[in-house]
Specification:
By secondary structure, this protein is α+β, with helices and mostly antiparallel strands. The protein has a domain at 12-130: Gcn5-related N-acetyltransferase (GNAT) (Aminopeptidase, 3-Layer(aba) Sandwich). The protein is 23% helix and 31% strand. The chain has four helices and eight strands; from the N terminus they run E-E-H-H-E-E-E-H-E-H-E-E. The protein has helices at 26-32, 50-62, 113-125, 143-151, and strands spanning 12-13, 16-20, 69-76, 82-89, 97-104, 133-138, 155-164, 170-179. An eight-stranded mixed β-sheet has the order 1-2-3-4-5-6-8-7, sandwiched between helices. A hairpin with a 2-residue loop joins strand 1 (12-13) and strand 2 (16-20). It is globular, with a radius of gyration of 15 Å. The chain starts with 11 loop residues before the first strand and ends with a strand. The structure holds coenzyme A (COA). Coenzyme A binds at residues 35, 37-38, 41, 101-104, 109-115, 136, 138, 142-145, 147-148, 151.
């Protein structure tokens, strides 16, 4: 999949800017990896070492050129410090479909970063030609993520059976969705 170019202006919303993941974000990756759930959602191992963190950063930097999607550090618009990570995944762009994911470091939670990051990510999504819908797969127990989704304009569509997670296991998840404005 050939994706549109990396945005020349970093997406932002409120106090959040979405920028490329960089080697300086290894500390953020290591902190995220201490969350028991985050390692189940991607390739970051639990309790990552510095080497694990740097390898994760390198993988994120390759996501765009390999056609997987846009992997962003969620950073403070003031200090540029990374507080988390999000991605817009576009392997099904030919069908008009994208999926998104997000995670905030434990010590930066409940400060509005996730909602602002998801708003910035979603608005950025509508700059991608052909993208009609963005979908989130959220565990039924994950109230924080469901509230984040609703605050960012997503609504719950259905209960999706057998969503595959990072380790190959399948889980039943809630499917939240937003449609391109005017589509
Ligand atoms: C889900 C997550 C991203 C939320 O990040 P956050 O920056 O704390 O979220 P925000 O501060 O933007 O708050 C968003 C909403 O969630 C609510 N919320 C946040 N943490 C909550 C919690 N522990 N319990 C209940 N509600 C919570 C907030 O109150 C807010 O809702 P409101 O505006 O209706 O009150 C964060 O908890 C996280 O990284 N979890 C682990 C990874 C994960 O689950 N990612 C999502 C996968 S689908």
């Amino acid at each position: 999949m050939i994706l549109p170019p990396w945005p020349s202006t970093p997406p932002r919303h409120g106090p959040v800017v979405l920028r490329e993941v960089a080697p300086k974000d290894v500390a953020m990756a290591r902190e995220l990896s201490t969350d028991p759930y985050v390692p189940q959602t991607g390739s970051l191992p639990f309790d990552a070492s510095s080497e694990d963190g740097l390898a994760w950063v390198t993988r994120q930097q390759g996501r765009h050129s390999e056609g997987a999607g846009f992997s962003f550090a969620i950073a403070s618009a003031v200090s540029d410090e990374a507080v988390g990570h999000c991605g817009l995944w576009l392997k099904s762009l030919d069908d008009g479909l994208g999926t998104a994911g997000y995670a905030i470091n434990p010590r930066h939670r409940r400060l509005g970063y996730a909602v602002n990051a998801l708003r910035a990510l979603t608005d950025f999504g509508w700059t991608v030609p052909g993208l009609l819908r963005i979908v989130l797969h959220i565990e039924p127990w994950n109230i924080a993520s469901q509230r984040t989704a609703r605050r960012a304009g997503y609504s719950s569509q259905k209960f999706g059976v057998g969503h595959r997670i990072a380790n190959g296991e399948t889980r039943d998840m809630l499917v939240y969705e937003v449609v391109r404005p005017g589509a």
